[in-house]
Amino acid sequence: MIKLRMRNIDRNVILVVFASVMAAALLVSLFLAVYLNASYAKAQFYSSQISNAAVRCQAHQDAFVHTKEIEDVAGFLHSYDDLVHNLELLAGESDVLSESEIMLTQLKVRDYRDLFIAYKEKQMVIGLAEGFGEQGVLLRIALSMENKLENAGEYRLLSMVAACRRSENEFVQNKKLTSVEDFKNKYVALVDAVKESGLSPQLKGEVLAELNHYQENFYILVKHMKEVGLRFGEGVSGELQKALLEINKQVSFIQATVLTRLGKTTRTIYWVLCISSALILMVLFLGVRLIRYNLRLVSEVHKRKVVEGELAEVNTNLERTVQNRTQKIASQIKDQERINKEILTLNEFSDYLQRCNSTAEALHIIRDYAKRLFPRDVGALYLFDDDGTLLNKKASWGDREDIFKDSFAPDECWGLRMDKFHYVSRDAQGLNCDHFSKELSTCYICVPMHNQEQLIGLMLLVCDQKACLSDETKKICTGKERQRLVVTISEHFSLALSNIQLRENLREQSVRDPLTGLHNRRYMLESINREVSRASRRSESLAAVMIDIDFFKRFNDTYGHEAGDEVLKRVAEILLSQVRDEDILCRMGGEEFLVVMTSISRDVVIKRAEALRESFESIDIHFGSSRKESLTVSVGISFYPDNSRDINTVIDLADKALYSAKNTGRNKVVVFSEYMLGG
Prior knowledge:
Blueprint: H1 2-67, H2 71-92, H3 99-126, H4 133-152, H5 155-174, H6 177-196, H7 201-228, H8 235-299, H9 304-354, H10 359-373, E1 378-384, E2 391-397, E3 407-408, H11 414-418, E4 422-424, E5 444-451, E6 454-462, H12 465-468, H13 474-478, H14 480-510, H15 521-538, E7 542-549, H16 552-559, H17 561-578, E8 584-589, E9 592-598, H18 602-617, E10 620-623, E11 627-630, E12 633-640, H19 647-663, E13 669-671, H20 675-678
Parallel strand pairs: 12-13
Antiparallel strand pairs: 1-2, 1-6, 2-3, 4-5, 5-6, 7-9, 7-12, 8-9, 10-11
């Protein structure tokens, strides 16, 4: 019997040793899996930093393309350095991505930087602002010719030089090759006019030499602008956009790869923990069996009951240990899944914000995603009003939105006073703010939002009352990850709002005449097709009213261009006071203005045009202390669809009617007639 028991003991010892070795091997595997998981988590952080740096590079690139500010180049290079630095950090995590994947991304990033620098250099050659680069050369040549012609009294040649300048400026602003052809025609006409003029031979030779120099530099400017790219997708500009798309694709690939491998390591950890627990239980169980056999050999009868009691106690402790470890593992897995879900939701939230076209869209998106990221909490987002004296509630979420005030002063929030993150716990640790409509018994967070260096608003998050008052969920309310999530959302929204405001400002600048404040030809071309479609649906007519200032050149020649600019501003003010809100008013160029009247009869259009002309006739403009001049305008009118069903033709016919008014005495209103086409 004893020999049989000894044989069982030897067999159990072998099983214990084998199970212990397997358990040790699995624990080593668990350590390696946790190490890889930590590497993937760091890689995920670096990949998000890379994505943010790429977004900032694109923002500075877009800003430089539209504003030509050299500060945006420094911002681009700083963001590029951040991108390269995070790529190097990501490359240090050798277990996450292969060296070839990292090197491919680094090559694409360097190519993108080189293309941007090339784009910047070509723009500097052309001239970032008026008076610099090749534009500055053209300006100085033109000013030299204008001074010589003005001293010689050749105002006709001076106006032809100005016409060439207009064609040059139109090409620089609109990048249309038709402007180059227009410049060529005007240049040839100007050269012929100079040759036939009565200038002295010496002065004529100087002017012709400067004209030739002016033409050569203009064509060099055209060549360089073609290299930059006249349209989207061409030249260096097109290559820059393609490089940016490639970087975005590579960054998305890196993020997707990191997330996929992070999920795999998480599942590996789960299974290794399960198998390790089972083997540890086996080791313990076999150990207990060894103890039992030893005790039975010493005193099988006397200590049987004692051994059974000890065995029962050991089993109870094992069950409790297994249960605690199982709960801990389940909690860790749940936390990891929650973090992964939040990361995916944040990336999706950032992508949508970057593609918003208005502040209203961005507010709608932040309201929707805040509900998803903080499903049990309530929150609100405030933005400063135009005066910067009050913050107004723009968005809120949750089932207790009534706790937020509609507006409040900045001094009512300690976060805004200190200009930093402010947290108040449920036991009133931290100074309470006064921007709530009722007293709170839960914790809350105040996060100031900035647009670069400017404070633009505040994000508030109030914890769910039931969760906050529960001890077991208190860590959720005060956890650093939760606070970091709120700060990240506010930073994403601030950046998106900055981009939206930049695009809106650029859009407004592109459709406004800087001198008069009226809309320009571009806005008219964008808006008039919409009005034509509306008029066609309603079977209504449109009227094109072309207005030109009489003897405007006399104001410029007599009193200077500054006086001419004041006349244009005064005319714009009068037109704004006379034109309806639903009409389209724009400055076509020079001293010509266009009013497109909608939903109005032919007779009323003529009466309004006459009233408009008479309002100018009764106005005197003063120059200096005693000189004053009367101001009159000539008006030409044509109708859609009576005169033509092509709105561009209608505008041309109104222009013909205007020239008819000019040629028949000025200061009158002329409606287009068919006989004008014969002339």
